[in-house]
């Protein structure tokens, strides 16, 4: 997988340039590098900004960006971690308007996020369906791209939009990442016109 994948993925999720900030300390990174080759590199990562927890295949890089939109400033926090072999990546991101406005979980919002990410990655949607994640309306999208097969999940909860994505990652690792996601901040369910999504049957 191209080394530019991480930057490309972040641009897709944030919609603008971002400034990287390591999620872990230098000593933690050194400890990870010194770990035995057969040690499980996966670790639980907590977002201190958006109230979620997820399991990732390596210490992630965090990027924060703010974009001026028609609805006001929108801040996005993104966490990106490559697989050990460097052949794939996992991404967890959340976005919030700076004024704290709640978001509406409408098809238009899901369509907009989906189209932006898939287009930026030169992808082609192969399947999509509605799911529920932590009791909230969400969408899962499967797509193909030059960098491999991808799975995208979009969740709207209260004032936050969450995006989870795997790209060039095998089915087992993809499931491990996606199904580990959990809200830990007590986000409230948003308004959801025509909400008829089916419950997700994935493991937690």
Describe the structure.
- The protein is α+β, with helices and mostly antiparallel strands and 204 residues long.
- 20% of the residues lie in helices and 41% in strands.
- The chain has helices spanning 5-14, 26-33, 107-120, 171-178, and strands at residues 19-22, 43-47, 52-56, 61-69, 72-82, 89-97, 124-133, 136-145, 148-157, 160-167, 182-183.
- Strand 8 (136-145) and strand 9 form a beta hairpin.
- Helix 1 (5-14) packs antiparallel against helix 3.
- The relative contact order is 0.18.
- The model is unreliable at 1-12, 14-32 and 187-204 (pLDDT under 50).
| Structural class category | alpha+beta
- Fraction of residues in β-strands: 35-45%
C-alpha Rg (nearest Å): 16 Å
Distance from first to last alpha carbon? 29 Å
Element-by-element helix/strand order:
HEHEEEEEHEEEEHE
Helix content: 10-25%
Sequence stretches where pLDDT stays below 50 over 5 or more residues: 1-12, 14-32, 187-204
Oligomer class: single chain
Number of β-strand runs: 11
Provide a brief overview of the structure:
The chain has 204 residues and is α+β, with helices and mostly antiparallel strands. The protein contains four helices and eleven strands.
Question: Which terms would index this structure?
Answer:
disordered N terminus, 20% helix, 4 helices, eight-stranded antiparallel sheet, 204 residues, globular, three-stranded antiparallel sheet, alpha+beta, disordered C terminus
